[in-house]
Amino acid sequence: GLQGCTNITNSGLSVMVEGCRRIKHLDINKCINIGDIGISSVSEACSLTLMTLKLLDCYKVGDDSILSLAN
Predict the structure, then answer these.
(1) What is the Cα–Cα distance from 33 to 19, expressed in whole angstroms?
(2) What is the distance between the alpha carbons of residues 37 and 42, in angstroms, rounded to a whole number?
(3) What does each of the 71 residues of the chain score in pLDDT, given as a tens digit?
(4) CB-CB neighbours of 61 under 10 Å
(5) Which H or E element spans position 54?
(6) Which one of 21, 29, 42, 56 has the largest count of C-beta atoms within 10 Å of its C-beta?
(7) Rounded to whole angstroms, how far apart are CA atoms 25 and 50?
(8) Is 63 helix (H, G, I), strand (E, B) or coil?
(9) Are 3 and 54 within 8 A, CB to CB?
(10) Eight-class DSSP state of 46
(11) DSSP reduced 3-state for 24
(12) pLDDT attached to residue 15
């Protein structure tokens, strides 16, 4: 997992999920530089396979991102 990787950004996460569209479990707890754009890219790229997403202490992630994941 990427837990605690404070250097990863929305751009890095977007590139990763574009290349790995079959992610089932993603732990980005405490990745403080991840925000709505990164989470949107996860929901778009991994919508068919993603089962769990851990977002503890990801303070830049807002309600709209959570709703996009739920949809």
Answers:
(1) 20
(2) 9
(3) 789 999 999 999 999 999 999 999 999 999 999 999 999 999 999 999 999 999 999 999 999 888 888 87
(4) 21
(5) strand 52-54
(6) 42
(7) 6
(8) helix
(9) yes
(10) S
(11) coil
(12) 96
Instruction: Specify the pTM.
Output: 0.88
Contact 8, 31 (CB under 8 A): yes
| Confidence at residue 23, expressed as pLDDT on a 0 to 100 scale | 95
**Amino acid sitting at position 30:** K
- Residue 12 tokens, joined: 């890095």
- The amino acid occupying position 31 is C
Give every CB contact of residue 62 below 8 A, 6+ residues apart in sequence. 35, 36
Residue linked to tokens 């991840």 = 34
Q: 54: number of CA atoms within 13 Å, CB side? A: 12
